[in-house]
Amino acid sequence: MSKILKVKARQVFDSRGNPTIEAEVFTKNNSASAICPSGASTGTYEAFEKRDKKNKRYLGKSVLSAINLINSIISKKLKGNNIHNQEKIDALMINLDGTRQKTRLGANAILSVSIAVKKLSAKLKKKPLYKTFLIKNNFKLPYPLMNIINGGAHANNGLRIQEFMIRPDRAKSFSEAMRICFLVIKNLSKIIKARGLSTSVGDEGGFAPMINNNNKALDLIISAIKRSGFINGKDVSICLDVAANELFKKKKYSIHSKNYISVEKSINEYKKMIKKYKIKSIEDPFAENDWISWNKLMKSIKKVQIVGDDLYVTNLERLKKGFLNLSSNAILIKLNQIGTVSETLEVIKFAQIIGFKTIISHRSGDSEDTFIADLAVGTNSNQIKTGSLARSERVAKYNQLIRIEEDLGKKARMNKIH
After folding, report:
1. Which residue, 60, 64, 161, 197, has most beta carbons within 10 Å?
2. What is the reported pLDDT for 157?
3. Best CA proximity match to 237, nearest among 141, 170, 332, 308
């Protein structure tokens, strides 16, 4: 009953309208499927996303060759294996690929199968998916890092910083966290409209008003928090994703304006911003190979969550380097940066052992697949980053967390963030 009969893949579409892979794994009388996400702001060290660059019918973005590899090579290799042996199945695919960044089969091919295997295993065990990861009891809900203004590679408005987010720090339940975010977003929409700006949204559902100054965006958010009846820095905290890879040239950064300035000046600007706006979390404040600058920032500021995304790309080797370098105190976890569920769990385990906060994250090209919601609860990750309260591929994850909270009933608790 629990042996894999076959794996079948198909080309579907993600939230940006680009082709992506859906893999379906079959056992006798059962199946489960998973859709692979895709990033826009990507790190150099991420696992390889296989696309048909010469296929002009899909402008070089189709994934048909990766699908063929799943339907032939991967399906044949996994046939007969026990669906519950996730580590063995993932290892078989990693070895079958045989490259460092999964360039032969494509991490998008491998990951879609890996997630589908995990889902089907939970289904056959008749267990909720969130109960099949690292945590066996005392499950906690993550705090949402909710995107409310988009900039950078996720919008075309000229904002330097890629994501302006809020975190409802005083929420006592996940449902309450969502209510707080809902109020701030609705009030922000009214404020943006009143100023004659557009309330159209970016890739991840946050507003993308035509402003090109970080402080103007932050002032809008402060006004929305206040109008909602909350105190900035206490009830609700502002969090940033800088995506500094995009703002780095010749050892200088253009994070705070279009002008490129030194690392020291950039750190001073961060300090001013943190103080003025009570910023509680900054993701990718410097470029992916600028280890020295990360360390300088960590030494310069206290009580701020410094998150590595492009820096670590959910890779254990890079995380170990960052830990020894004192580069950050938190890591963003993206399944498709590494390419299998097993490797992702290994990184989460190590991060938590060394005292890092783990933040489970979506990608800008996402889908209706809600796997990361269960992953966040099942790994005791205290935050989740899955976009704004707009666009169904983002809201789907929040809705799944509401279901999980309901399933836990009186045992439901929010995780710690401090």
Report:
1. 161
2. 72
3. 170
Instruction: List b or e across 22-60, with b for residues whose CB sees 16 or more CB atoms inside 10 angstroms.
Output: bbbbbbeeebbbbbbbbbbbbbebbbbbbbbeeeeeeee
- Span 206-211, mean pLDDT? 91
pLDDT digits (tens, 9 = 90+) for 224-235: 999 999 999 999
Mean pLDDT along residues 16-40? 95
Catalytic residue among 334, 357, 385, 397: 334
Q: Which of 204, 283, 343, 405 is catalytic?
A: 204
Does 369 have pLDDT greater than 80?
yes
Q: Residues 247, 249, 253, CA angle at the centre, nearest 5°?
A: 50
What's this model's pTM, rounded to 2 decimal places? 0.96
pLDDT digits (tens, 9 = 90+) for 299-314: 999 999 999 999 999 9
Q: Which CATH architecture has domain 6-127?
A: 2-Layer Sandwich (3.30)
Q: Of 140, 106, 135, 123, give the one whose Cα is nearest residue 20.
A: 106
Q: How far apart are CA 104 and CA 124, in angstroms?
A: 31
162-182 average pLDDT score? 97
Domain spanning 140-414 has what CATH number?
A: 3.20.20.120
